[in-house]
Design brief:
Structural class: alpha/beta
Helix content: 25-40%
Shape: globular
Number of domains: 1
Order of helices and strands: EHHHEHEHEEHEHHHEEEEE
Bound molecules: fe (ii) ion
CATH architecture: 4-Layer Sandwich
Number of strands: 11
């Protein structure tokens, strides 16, 4: 079985009503045509399942949600997502005075209304267990460490998928080596600082994350940690490795993970 992992997409609908913000975020607002290349790469590889690493939208609006889901429908492949911070943020011109401003719970409900689950989940696929961790604000839901320990307590090969990278010294060093100005409070799971030691070390074969918008591969003990680049190509702005996709081939025991650019 082949599983594709795709990084942040940041879709903005041409119909989204926040005009000023859409203009300011033009590098994402006009990026969506490049998703056709991602779709064609995916069709070429014909994975059995696609997992998105969050930030399906650049900011939440019903229009952006519907546009993103419409874009993903071109895949014709089952897909899952683990949520990103942008899936719950609002346009910058939205403030407390904006009528009917949805809070995070309401936004989660609106994703759910369209059938998009975003909580912690495990999915078994051909001898592999995918653990989707809900981490958009650099924390994880209460009980996540216990849940991960339970889920990884048998012989399945475990792969963890989280928008915000786990907080390990190896990952922190790597991020700062590429972009020294990054604030690690936002770019690793700073509010779940012990999750790796408590529930991942020695239990999980590989971890996949988005959020940074650049690729990378580091190792923490026996766990391989993969950062994925943007899942499409931004408009007028070059993000390193953008459009690259990661594949897990479950039949490969030694090197199951492969990047394709
Ligand atoms: Fe992002």
């Amino acid at each position: 079985m082949r599983i594709a992992l795709v990084g942040d997409l940041h879709f903005i609908s041409p119909d989204d009503p926040s005009r000023r913000w859409r203009e300011r975020r033009r590098h994402f607002a006009e990026a969506w045509p490049s998703f056709a290349r991602t779709v064609s790469l995916l069709r070429d590889e014909s994975p059995d399942l696609v997992v998105f690493l969050g930030d399906l939208v650049d900011y939440y609006s019903d229009e952006n949600r519907d546009f993103a889901l419409d874009q993903l429908s071109a895949l014709k492949t089952p897909w899952l997502v683990t949520p990103g911070n942008h899936d719950f943020s609002l346009a910058g011109e939205t403030d407390e005075t904006t009528p009917d401003r949805p809070d995070t719970d309401e936004i989660r409900r609106r994703w759910a209304v369209r059938g998009v689950a975003m909580g912690n989940r495990s999915v078994d696929a051909d001898g592999v267990r995918l653990l989707l961790v809900d981490s958009p604000d650099s924390s994880v839901p209460e009980g996540t460490a216990d849940w991960l320990r339970r889920e990884t307590d048998d012989s399945a090969r475990n792969f963890l998928i989280t928008h915000v990278p786990l907080n390990t010294p190896e990952m922190a060093d790597y991020i700062l080596s590429v972009e020294p100005q990054r604030d690690l409070r936002r770019y690793v799971q700073s509010k779940a600082p012990t999750l790796f030691d408590e529930a991942v070390r020695g239990r999980v074969e590989a971890v996949f994350s988005g959020h940074l918008h650049f690729p990378g591969h580091v190792r923490a003990d026996a766990t391989a940690m993969h950062l994925l680049p943007l899942g499409l190509c931004a408009f007028g702005k070059a993000y390193r490795g953008q459009g690259g996709i990661c594949f897990i081939d479950t039949s490969e025991k030694k090197s199951p993970v492969r990047m394709r650019e």
